[in-house]
Amino acid sequence: METEPSGLEPGLYIVAGPIGNLGDLTPRGAEVLRLADVVAVEDTRVSARLLRHAGSDRPMVPYHDHSAENVRQRLVERMGHESVALLSDAGTPLISDPGYKLVRDARAAGRRITTLPGPSAAIAALTLSGLPTDRFLFMGFLPSKAKARGDALDEVAALRATLVFYESGPRLSDSLASMAAHLGDRDAAVSREISKTFEETATGTLTELSARYADAPPKGEIVVTVGPPGEAPPASAEDADAALLEALTRLPVSKAAGEVAKKLGLDRRTLYDRATELKAAEAEE
């Protein structure tokens, strides 16, 4: 049975849904959900509630990270003559989910692609955290195994930016402890149930927050935000001398001074003069 034309141009419509309160669905998002020929969803049971709220009776098609490639290809084919809305279980599609593959293939096929901005748990948690927001990195979920989790944290430990993670209640305390071990005991915030009745944001150091949730894993959707590393203290004269003496065992004076200047953020000319003194003192011994 063929459906009547929807009134929307054929193509892909990326619809940001609520992360908690159904009232956060934008009017434009609700309109697309009412008019689209088909709605691609992660879980039909979850999305059915939102579609009812939007007054939509449009058919749903499951599309998630376990969908076969041919499911994606059929959706791309339908975009040639139908409007396809993409909806995740919560928030903006493609953020920590596989929807980017659908967008990639739709673009390669020359389909029209439109996004309807709206809620995102990562952005909402940043606004609640009280941490710097001028530069941040979204990390999604950390690996479950301790070694892989530590490696992932080590990769970003020196990055001067606020870090944003998604996490589950049972893993929260261990993840916070790993962050403290690999990133340093930084200021952080744990936000949960954002825009819902029991919304909560707890702040403190990573160690303090890990202890808080050790015996009481929280329920609900959780976002962890971690502040950037603090400024490193300036290198002392003793630090500079130690670095120069080590470098002089491998390099001539000029190159040793340049290497240490770059490493410690000190003046190269001053280090050159000091390296010359150290070299001369060594020759007199």
TrEMBL record:
Keywords: Cytoplasm, Methyltransferase, rRNA processing, S-adenosyl-L-methionine, Transferase. InterPro entries: 4pyrrol_Mease, 4pyrrol_Methylase_sf, 4pyrrole_Mease_sub1, 4pyrrole_Mease_sub2, rRNA_ssu_MeTfrase_I, RsmI_HTH, SAM_MeTrfase_RsmI_CS. Its EC number is 2.1.1.198. The keyword Ribonucleoprotein does not apply. It holds the Pfam family TP_methylase. Residues 12-209 form the Tetrapyrrole methylase domain. One of its GO terms (cellular component) is cytoplasm. It comes from the Bacteria. Its main location: cytoplasm. It is found in: Cytoplasm. GO terms for molecular function: rRNA (cytosine-2'-O-)-methyltransferase activity. The keyword rRNA processing applies. It catalyses: cytidine(1402) in 16S rRNA + S-adenosyl-L-methionine = 2'-O-methylcytidine(1402) in 16S rRNA + S-adenosyl-L-homocysteine + H(+). It is an enzyme of class 2 (transferase). Residues 235-279 form the RsmI HTH domain. Catalyzes the 2'-O-methylation of the ribose of cytidine 1402 (C1402) in 16S rRNA. Belongs to the methyltransferase superfamily. RsmI family. This is Ribosomal RNA small subunit methyltransferase I. It comes from Sphingobium limneticum.
